[in-house]
Amino acid sequence: MTIESLVAQYGLPAIFLGAGFEGETVAILAGVAAHAGTLGYWPTVLVAGLGSFTADQIFFVCGRFFRHAQFVRRISARPFFAKALNAFEKRPLLFTFGFRFVYGFRTVSPIAIGTTQLPTLRFVLINVAAATTWALVFVSAGFWFGHGIETIFGHLRSHHRLLVFIVGALLLVGTLALWARHRWTLVRS
To answer: What PANTHER family does the record point to (predicted)?
Structure first.
């Protein structure tokens, strides 16, 4: 099932979940759906913002109350976690507002922020403002450029077999590269 078909079939609930866990792609496609008249613009912005807000609150709570749980410990071992904490320490309010706009920081950052001393109410207020801004930016991008995006996807659909082959080949090459890297690391250890 494609993101487009999920949005068409399930509408706003799909956007809520997708915006929370996938992010920008869903918000932009939701904007395209609003452009096409499938969904209303303002309900789409509201639901995308709520999905993003809710996911970040859940991740923040994981960092705040489940610091010693295996999930949080596994996340905290990633290099992005240390980078997120470092960026937070330099500019806590700016980082808390802007992490969702930086690739790679979306899931790790609210968990990292949850492990800091930032008051929960302050995070909630910043998260509301950031999620609203994020939803407006990405849903609007899909809405404003909807015609062009629909045209591009229309051209891509006619070549879907070639695209599936290319994506499959890239996944295979990537998997083999990761396997080879892992083997090389084991041999060197």
So the answer is: ALKALINE PHOSPHATASE LIKE PROTEIN, INNER MEMBRANE PROTEIN YOHD
Classify each residue of 22-59 as buried b or exposed e, where b means 16 or more C-beta atoms within 10 Å of its C-beta: ebbebbbbbbbbbbeeebebeebbbbbbbbbbbbbbeb
111 Cβ contact partners less than 8 Å away, ≥ 6 residues apart: 59, 60, 62, 63, 72, 75, 76, 81
* pLDDT tens digits, 17-55: 888 888 888 888 888 888 888 888 999 999 999 999 999
The amino acid at 148: G
Query: Can you read off the two tokens belonging to residue 105?
Result: 């920081």
pTM of this prediction exceeds 0.85:
no
Q: For residues 99 and 77, what is the distance between their CA atoms, to the nearest angstrom?
A: 18
Q: How far apart are CA 153 and CA 140, in angstroms?
A: 18
Query: 38, 68 in Cβ contact below 8 A?
Result: no
Distances (CA, A) of 174 to 144, 167, 178: 35, 10, 6
Distance in angstroms (rounded) separating the CA atoms of residues 20 and 58: 10
Ordered by start, the domain boundaries in the chain are 3-158, 160-189
Q: What is the DSSP letter of 118?
A: -
